[in-house]
Amino acid sequence: MKTTSAHQNDRKLSLIFLFAATLFTSATLMFVLQPMFGKILLPLLGGSPSVWNTCMVFYQSILFLGYLYAHYLSTALDRQRQILVHAGIILLSLLVLPLALPDNASPPTESNPTWWLLWVLLLAIGLPFFVVSTTAPLLQKWFSQVGHHTSHDPYYLYTASNAGSLLALLSYPFLIEPHIGLENQKFLWSAGYILLGLLIAGCAWIFWRSGNHTVLHDQESQLPAVDSLDIRTRLHWLALAFVPSSLLLGLTNFISTDIASVPLLWIIPLTLYLLSFIIVFSKWNGKTHPWMVKLQPVVLLPFIAYSFIDPAIVPYWLDLVLHLLAFFLAIMVCHGELAKMRPHTRHLTLYYLIMSFAGMLGGMFNTFLAPFIFNGVYEYPIMIIAALLLRPNLKATHKPAWKQLLLDAGFPAALFILGFSIYLFTDSNALGRQLGAIVAALTLLAGLNYAFRFRAVTLALTTAVIILFSFVLHNLRTSTLFQERTFFGVLSVRKSVLIDEQNQPEIYHELFHGTTKHGAQRLPAGLQTIPLTYYSQPGPMGQLFKAYDPDNALWRIGVVGLGAGALACYSKPGQDWVFYEIDPAVVKIAENTDYFSYLEHCAKKYRMRIGDARLSLQNDPEQYFDLLVLDAFSSDAVPTHLLTRQALELYFAKLKPTGILAFHITNRHLALKKVLSDHARNLGLAALIQEFEPQQQIPLVVATDWVVMARHEQTLQRLQESRLGHWQKLPLYFDMRSWTDDFTNIVSVWR
User: Is 709 within 8 Å of 661 (Cβ atoms)?
Assistant: First the structure.
């Protein structure tokens, strides 16, 4: 049945180009706005991941509201009223340009700033973000009614939208952020938004002229009843969109927590996620989707074997590749099924509305629910299994549904009962001696799992049992004393063994944040007060305290980053120490003597300040500290707002004229000394660096890099002349652009 007007034979490429360009521009603006406004908020709220989580939930919620608006507008109003209402909202949104924080925006210091942040986001970018959120479903709906010869299937335009998102995603950290300051970014974004308004106006003009709405409405109302949507179809759409959304966030957390703490690594999963939409909503999906379904169980074998059962035998980059490949195939299968099920254009906006709602639910599940019910990133393997459950059935069955379910679940259920019985009735020490046999058995099961590739439920449930047993295997291998998950990541305390000076095994404790070690302590009575790892006595921190030992009896010392509390063992009775720690869970661990006793044994007089250090320091007295130690740059999420010129000016405002600023810059991926060198040159500061390498094998004394800075060279002269270590002047780097609250660039300091 024909569902278009007399213009249905229009074959103009210009029509496709106009609508595609509008969708492309809208998506680009959306994906540039998110990191850009995050940088605007950074100096105000600091680098807390809870800030980013709150922002993400705001974006997903506004996106859902935009899709809801597009659905209502296109189904309840005629075309003239649609255009007038949408034009009014666009004109209203222009009032907030150029983008900026509201006047006198100041977060609460005594209470949780979540609601304040949501209100600021709503005032500052709510309307523009809402407009760009409405563009994809609304313009595709309009295109379905303009009479082009492809109007019956406008979903291919979604490719242009996702291409814009992908371009913005890759452009911001590598092109926009390194070359354009925040003020210019805001100006250019506003100009792009005005261009978007003009493009939408062009599409609206075409839509207005394309035919009589009454005819179209009457024709759509005459569609056959079979085109109606039942609740099962809608729930299927919801599941197919929810699982990839949750899987994206889960994988991003997992790889940064359990594989590698690499800055900007989150870009790769999001790139694959957007790429999957581009492929499945293009003309290639009919050819690629069957191959994705066939390849998924093939990759599942090495993925389970090497990424869950025995990840230690492969290098981290290969483990990362396996995770990314398995993730890409999972979302390609889910999104491919979603694209195959796309409905008639009469239900286009409802289809996108359910997709956006599922995306919002996925974000909320991973952001708010998972951290409270799991102490690790367990939502990731759960969604891997859920994705397998959503695989299409490749072989038809004539059995009743309940009988087929029993058959599919029979083998995994028997396998679980057998494995659980062995674990329950076998001594843990005996199991520990059979680790090799357990690994071999689980790997064999992973291989046998391929035989169930045609039975989605059996494949998924067997995979679930194998992954569950692999977690049990991991617990047998490692001695994790404590593990907790917060907004700031996964913290764990582990028991490890070293060979001591008498060549005897000795147990010690380590603190980890994800894969990054944040401290260690030896347990024998005479060794508990010896600072280790990055803070060892032979290292730069030990040298600094020893060099100034005659004069530091009454020093006031501030430390940004608590860790296990090892630095407290340099304290003296007359000193005043202040620790700044953003994560309350770290404080609980450091003060729990079952794990670490540095603070109990060493700290004579100290205060604990919870929250972002830069915000906390602003409330401290001027010229208060003799020494300020910045130890917050060794993990993947480098808080760049603590390294800007304005941050250094704040630090020196809080230091006495003869005060010393010490930076711990040990980092596997970033050369942060370039940033500090540039600041020292521009602010006229004295600066020394030591890239410490232990000269002999001392237990838990590791290589570490430190920079010390002062207003005058005389302040650091004693340290340089002490011959306690190889301190040298910080090299000059003339290719650096100064980091400010307006401009930072992680790529410029990549090793």
Answer: yes
